[in-house]
Amino acid sequence: MSLNPNLFTEGPIESPTLNVMGLALAFLSPGLFIAGIVEWVSGSSHNEWPLFATAAISLNIGLTLRALTEISSEVKALSMFSMVAWSWVACSVMGALPYLWAGVFPWSNLDNALFESISGFSCTGSTVLEDIESLGKGMLLWRQLTQWYGGMGMIVLATAVLPRLGVGGLALMSAEAPGHKSDMLRSTATKTAKTLWTVYFVTTLVIMLALWIAPGPTLFDAVNHALSTAATGGFSTYNASVGYFDSVAVEVILIAGMLFCALSFTLHYKVFVQREKLAWVKSSEARVFLSVVFFVGALVTLINLSDGLESFPTVFRDSMFNVVALASSTGFGNVRADGIGDFVLWGSATQITLLFLMTVGGTTGSTAGGMKILRLQIGFKALRRELRLFEHRKGVFPITIGREPISDRIISSALAFVALFITFVILGTVAISALGNDLLTSASGAISAMSNMGPALGEAGPTNNYLSFSRPARPILAFLMILGRLEIYAVLLMLVAPANRILIRK
Fold it and tell me: Collapsing DSSP states into helix, strand and coil, what is residue 135?
């Protein structure tokens, strides 16, 4: 008896969401298995069985869903957003199981295990662990891998092996890492996904090798921090984060990695695969992002110098590292005894500037969070057009990004996103402050969660963890992380999709 070659593509139930969810869960199993082997071999603890068990469960559920379901030839946009959102939620739930079975969090603190997993898959980097270094090496590796999967790998992989999605595959990918249509690759979904996956993997490998060569980090350190950097996540294997190494070389490598991964991966594809060497320069969004980073870095350095915090080398080093870490939404910390890495202790002017960086984030099509530079570009240009229309009421002033005009639909979508982002930040701030936290901690926490940043200001700075927030407030922060990672629309449409199907059937 021969095996049906279409066993995992043509099931009896037509459900694109469950099919892609199954694929995403199946892709988690190799990472869980590798983490289990590392835990077993290292002998750091005896928590390999929770990782192996979760790998088996994830693989079996994933293959079962794939075998029982199929994707129709035509997939609607609503279903594509639903695929992304529900797959991501399923992976977050599965990712929490090793923490619970290994006793990292007791079952009575199920919410903390889910928070840690959501923070990982959303590439936020916020933690509720009090002693990170107490975890075994396998558990630490899995913690880092949640960020790596959440960065781009899970969705791109899903697209790569689903050629039946056709053009829909690109839409699926853009829900996770949306970009302007001029930056989207003109190719099939399968080819696009595979090439972006390759760029993502090679980027991780290069960062890992650079860290390994640098004095200080071990191979284990290099691998784990490369995974986090590529995903702009911010998880570290040490309580002191990057400050543990106290190395200028390590920080320079991470700065370069964070900046690279905060730029669109479609640009990297054009540069390294299509040999368009000027693609970075031609991208107006990339130019604006880098200009903002270096301008704010210089400004923060000058303000900290004027405040007399430390000598110029120390101020420059710590100011630039933290500006890049926050602008890229990575959130690594470099707090040292002889440095000024704890930005909670900086002046009010610098903290307001940091809040701005946390809100803006990186570029579209990158693994960074935030509102994204492109949307702010469109917003400012739309404002300028409205002001010009006051003077020239019959004038026609098209909005362009680079040399390409932007349609009114894209403009309205960008402005609506900015409005929704601000609305959820305000609602989150009100809710968190009502649950026992001060205003600065609440506002910065809401912004950090929506921007997938990690550290916040006030009581949740780089030297603290998110246990600083009250227990009822942390689920709110986790929900904001989901909203931020999935670009708000995917989550809202995920909730709308079931109701929409009910209404259609009625």
Answer: coil
Cα gap 114→121, rounded to integer Å? 10
Note the pLDDT tens digit of each residue in 47-93.
899 999 999 999 999 999 988 887 766 666 666 677 778 888 899 99
Range 402-410, long-range pairs (CB < 8 A, 24+ positions): 402/182, 402/282, 402/283, 402/284, 404/180, 404/182, 406/180, 406/378, 410/180, 410/181, 410/378
**For residues 275 and 271, what is the distance between their CA atoms, to the nearest angstrom?**
5
Beta carbons within 8 Å of 15's beta carbon, 6+ residues apart: 69, 70
- Residue 393 region, left (φ>0) first, then alpha (ψ -120 to 50), else beta? alpha
CA distance 332 to 490: 27
Q: Name the residue with tokens 């829900």.
A: 175
Percent share of the chain, pLDDT over 90: 52
Residue 486 Cα to chain centre, angstroms: 9
Give percent of the chain above pLDDT 70: 85
Give CA–CA dist 142/39, Å, rounded: 10
**Would you state the structure tokens that stand for residue 496, as one six-digit string?**
């709308």
Distance (Å, rounded) from C-alpha 364 to C-alpha 174? 9
Q: Residue 54 corresponds to which tokens in the numbers above? A: 């979760």
CB atoms within 10 A of CB 369: 31
The answer to whether 173 and 200 have CB atoms below 8 angstroms apart is no
Would you mind telling me the total number of residues written for the chain in this entry? 506
Predicted pLDDT of residue 160: 45
What distance in Å separates the CA atoms of residue 216 and residue 474, rounded to the nearest whole number? 35
Mean per-residue pLDDT, 162-179: 43
pLDDT at 83: 77
Q: Find residue 10's DSSP bridge partners.
A: 70
503 Cβ contact list (under 8 Å, min separation 6): none
Predicted TM-score of the model (pTM): 0.89
pLDDT, tens digit, 9 for 90 and up, residues 443-482: 999 999 999 998 889 888 888 889 999 999 999 999 999 9
Q: Residue ranges of the alpha helices (H) in 177-311? A: 189-213, 219-230, 248-261, 265-272, 279-282, 284-306
| Tokens coding 254 | 């991470």
CA dihedral of residues 127, 133, 139, 143 (deg, nearest 10): 30
First to last CA, the chain: 43
- In whole angstroms, what is the distance from residue 278 CA to residue 238 CA? 38
Measure the CA–CA gap between 69 and 21, rounded to whole angstroms: 10
Q: CA-CA distance, 136 to 226, in Å (whole number)?
A: 19
